[in-house]
Amino acid sequence: MDSKAQASAEFILLFGGIMVVVLLAIHMYKNYMNDLSGQIQSNEVRDFNNQLNSLGKYFR
User: Fold this and answer.
1) Cα separations (Å) of 57 from 48, 52, 60?
2) How does DSSP assign the chain, residue by residue?
3) CA–CA separation, 7 vs 13, rounded Å?
4) pLDDT tens digit string along 3-54?
């Protein structure tokens, strides 16, 4: 009976450890995406978008 309880406790601890790793990875990915969004707002992207918009008048 004790071995079944120990196995259950080990599975709970293993699952908890996996959840901690997943939550840390999600947090790091969120920070990465926030940093990336700041870089996407650069002048080069804005200029490219303006050029695409100016080409739009030829396709209307």
Assistant:
1) 15, 10, 6
2) -HHHHHHHHHHHHHHHHHHHHHHHHHHHHHHHHHHHHHHHTSHHHHHHHHHHHHHGGGG-
3) 10
4) 888 899 999 999 999 999 999 999 888 888 777 766 666 777 788 888 888 8
Please state, in angstroms and as integers, the Cα–Cα distance from residue 59 to each residue in 8, 11, 49, 55, following that order.
65, 61, 16, 7
Residues comprising the chain, all counted: 60
- Whether pTM > 0.70 for this model: the answer is no
